[in-house]
Amino acid sequence: MLSNKKRKILTITSEKQAFAVLEQALNGSLPEFDELEFKGWPNFELYLKGKKFDQSITATVMKGLLELQNGFYRAYSIANYDHAKKRLTQAEKDELELTIKVNNGSSLFETNVSEVATNIAKDLVGKMSGTELVVVLVTALVSFFGTSAYKHFLDARKEERLKNSSDAAQIKMLETMQFSSAEETNRSKIIADAMKHNSQALQIVGEAHLVQAELLKAAAAGDSSKFGGVTLTNEMADALTQGSRRESKQVRLDGEYRLLKLDWSTPSSVKVKIQNVKTFTDLNAVVQDDSLTGEHKEAIKTAEWQRKNLTLEINAKLIGDSNYSEVTIVSAKIASN
Asked: Which class for 54: exposed (0-12), middle (13-18), buried (19 or more C-beta within 10 A)?
């Protein structure tokens, strides 16, 4: 006998609703549903103004758009296979392909992802719980296509540039920039909570950060631009992407980090891959045997096994704007939060 029970469909139509549903999933108040669908959201626009975009597209912009697509492939691989480099089938790629519409003489690039997002939800149903589905998929969508994520990224990039720039005029310009509102700052905390509770969400946000960086470079190619809902002049985009000098200097990169990878295979040192929880900057670092006491090394081991964040003191060499070398951890303890 067939059941007449009506299927419960959870429909997300806006970024605001996406964050509300994600917060429900994280605090355990998510209502039961049978299907997850998206209508009218998410979408993404990249607008570029300048003579070179009248009838053409530059290699820098093409690279940014390709990274958006490839990053989305990697996010799906993480969600479906828990592996960013899993080779997708052609059918999967076809299903995930973003249709980018070009308007106004190749100056406006836009895509609506709602149908693709709904198809992904159908793929993942049954492979994880409803709560896990919302945490992983909605985190991916707000990170790749949400205005709040791009504003948070730009604020983090601004703080990084302020810390490392030595150009007085550039510093003055950077200090005038403010992208995130109080609501958007709160949304970044929701994303941080998702990353803390789900390793796939953590990896996906890292992939989105790589995409955001490439799209910022694309934005800098125009006289003015708008991406992720944020309007930038060429001067603003340039200040956020490039440094004024290329010489190397010693810097400190102290802060709270996630431990992404730990390698004990080399007898003389410990190698780690870490990610700053505020800027999402990934670093490959070394812990020399004589650098830390046993207490600090135990903290690193605890972070690996219990998936806790670390408060680290780090020495590094900065080359140019954001290229780091000789990254060495000199102190480590479990983060308080």
From this structure: exposed
